[in-house]
Amino acid sequence: MRAILLGDVHLADRPPSVRTEDYADLIIGKLRFSVQTAIEEKVDALILAGDVFHIKRPDRTSHALVQRALDTFTEAQKAGIEVMAVPGNHDMQHDRLDSLEKQPLGVLFKSGVKPLMGRHPHLPVHGIPYLQDWGDLHGWLGTDETVGQSPIDTRTLVVTHAPIMPPGRSAPFEYIDATHWANAQGAGRLYYGHIHDTHGAFRAGDEGLGFCNQGALSRGSLHESDLQRKPAITLYDTDGDEESCWRRIEVPHRPASEVYTLTQVRSAEHNREQMSEFIRRIGSVSINTISIEALSAHLATLDIPADVKSAVLELVEEATCS
Ligand SMILES: [Mn+2]
Hints:
The protein has helices at residues 23-40, 63-78, 104-109, 137-141, 178-185, 256-259, 262-282, 292-301, 306-320; strands spanning 2-6, 45-48, 82-85, 114-115, 118-119, 125-128, 157-161, 164-165, 176-177, 189-193, 200-204, 209-213, 232-237, 246-250.
């Protein structure tokens, strides 16, 4: 199988904070480039690794935007390319798969985009959606020894949306070490979305399982790494060796200075500094910049149910991109 793989599209009508107004047009442009590349390369499939839409509330994503996404994918389908997606956490409400029914991604699924969950009927690809609890990884992979024949073999590409970190790297939120994942999967290769930074191709686990995360297609709200990061997609070939199976293709994009409203960022930072200085002068209180990552890391330390944690994060994410 040859396929174009792409992660974290984050389509939205309104730009995330500090992004310029043309956010939706730029993302659609990147999707068109991905589809065009898929057609030129005559691949079998275009596979989206989750977070196709940014806002997990159907009333905040327009019909027009859903139709623009569909029109783009239809071009690939007309060329005989199967378009499929694993649901990401942004595509579901409260991390529940049954919410897809009411979500924009659910509409794509009813309009010809295939949900990739479990083993594909004829292509060597196996999808795992974002899970609230990754404890049942063996169940989703089908590698639980009690089940019998594993659906994963040396030619299988698993595609998921999961908080995976390469060996030796940590994150300030709950994550899955790639070594752990590799040993649970056993064979084949893995492409994943969710972490927007580029991890690139690497190997992990006892058998040296091949991993790849090319990073998010979108550059969402501003993080330090987004200023430097070049969005890219992956041309995958099952028949390639461990190095050549993943080919990175950079997506044409505008420089960070043109897509972020950096003057606003700087003045917000300036205001924060002034506030800190003010508080420093009046007493011993300290002020911290609150980011979603920091909040998520803090939530992870609290002994509260997982669905409460995800509901809190959803509210904050909604607030930051309204
Ligand atoms: Mn994402």
